[in-house]
Amino acid sequence: MKKIALILAFGLVFVACNTDDDAGTSEEQKFTVAFSFTHNWDGGAIADADFDLIQYTNANGEQLSISKIVYLISDITFTNAAGEVFDAGDFNLVNVRENSNLSFTPNIEIPAGDYTVTFTFGFDDEDNIDLAYPELNSADGGWNVPLPMGGGYHYMRLEGKYINTASDEIGYQYHTIRANDMSTTPITLQDTSFEVNLGLVTIGSSTNIEVQMNVAEWFKNPNLWDLNVLFTVLMPNFDAQIMMSENGATVFTKGAVTQ
Amino acid sequence: MKFFTYLSLLVLILCSFSCGIDSPGDGFEPTPVSLTIPQLFEERILPPVIPEDNPLTEEGIALGKKLFFDPMLSLDGSQACADCHRPENGFSDPRRFSVGIDGSVGTRNSMPLHNLAWNYNERFFWDGRATTLEQQIFGPVTNPIEMKNTWPNVENTLQTADDYPQLFEQAFGTSTIDSTMVSKAIAQFVRTLISANSKFDRFLLGQEELTASEENGLAVFLDEARGDCFHCHGLPANPLWTDNTFHNNGLDAIITDRGLGGFSGDPREFGLFKSGSLRNLAFTAPYMHDGRFETLEEVINHYSEGLVFSETIDPLMKKVGEGGVHLTEEDKVDLKAFLLSLSDPSFINNPDFQE
Questions:
Q1: Residues of chain B with pLDDT > 90: what percent?
Q2: Is A142 close to B245, i.e. CB distance below 8 A?
Q3: Nearest in space to B127 (alpha carbons), one of B138, B136, B115
Q4: pTM for the full model?
Q5: Could you tell me if the ipTM is greater than 0.85?
Q6: Phi first, then psi: what are they for B343, rounded to 5°?
Q7: 53-82 in chain A: CB under 8 A from chain B
Q8: How many domains is chain A partitioned into structurally?
């Protein structure tokens, strides 16, 4: 009798205190994958001390500074050799200067193995739903795009100053969003998010994948960017949004993969 | 036999300790309060920031309100928080600079108080030097040009008052008053100062229409080529109407008040000040960190024609060399009409927020 009481008491302890889900199945082990985001200008790391200094020269020859780099990535996807796709469907808003979200672990576990890893820069149209994400509505006073420009969310806010042809310091706002042409009725919208393919990665029990952004590439190719012409009011500039999206194709690369 | 009985009891007691969350304490049981979250806030933005070590309670809020309106916090018993944060002025001060108990005049305009529980950055004051609301409240009481008091003196004054020891007992479980509890109580009250019933709020809820002028004003506000106000002050997706962060908005060619940089010491932050919320502008004149503009027309003219360059000016300030974007007179009038639609008379008249 007393033994039963003791067993019951111990049982209560375990039942009452155990808040972990029991993953005790004999199925294949699965793991999360961590990502870290680093930023450079043609190979030179961008540190906090580098912000607000006119020290960079873009491919078109303008000297410039960087004051702000905030960008959104979404839909990190792992595809194995059999074509099986793993996608947490979540997003990450990286704020470089504020050092926020430079590390991100998608909310999904996958079996160990080799995967092609991709993500979306910005939101594709399926995810770019106006007002849908309180976290983004709350970020930076609102990460949203005004409804007259089609709504949804910014992909990136890259800001700073450059020296113009008159040698004046001028602010630039390299903001990327879904391309929109407000001159048409209804407004013309074009999805300018793009997929970044990091290539094949071997995923193990504690894999970290570095994603490198070369900021200089935004100004380089295929469209040589002339800041004297394209420095401001780029959000409602349909053609500029297309060009920025095209230039984004070479911005991201896979860095170190650690296990 | 007894061994097993005692062991079982011991295990059960251990269980109740290790798993227990609620402990009734010593008879101290203030009544928990949950903020009533306005619909637009609930639907659109993240929940408010309520620190774990200062949960809202009925007793704490009531005590905080009493303290907020009580001049006993000042050295000579002549000045309360509410003297420079007046409810009828959106909890701001209609004077350009507030005046301390000895006639000293400050250098910045008193900040309006509303929706501060949603300040996710938790940077308070124009220069962001306080990192919690509780910490912010410590400032004015001992500021030599404001209330000019000392915390030991405040504690002693409240301790010897007829009613405060009991009120602190009810709110915090002890009648021994200290400065931390004073700041916590006032912070609790300030977190209840929620403004969410402007004409524009009702428009978003489908309860009211905007005038044509207000509609065009909104369009100017959201147009990157005209107002481009939204990059610092937010947009309808975010009912706070501020990014709660810091910018140099082109007020001065020579920075005399260093703002955020004066606190951080970083020259790149000289002259940066927090973006004020655009709610309740009808009640919170004068404007800017130093209250230099008496009217909204002056504010709009500043962004339209009055921008001046300095080294730390924000890249979002456009056409600085020309003074700004040069809005048309019609756009200026309409922008003002829209801005005024963000004011909430029910907030300044809310009896819960009056003395």
A1: 92
A2: no
A3: B136
A4: 0.90
A5: yes
A6: -90, 150
A7: 67-68
A8: 1
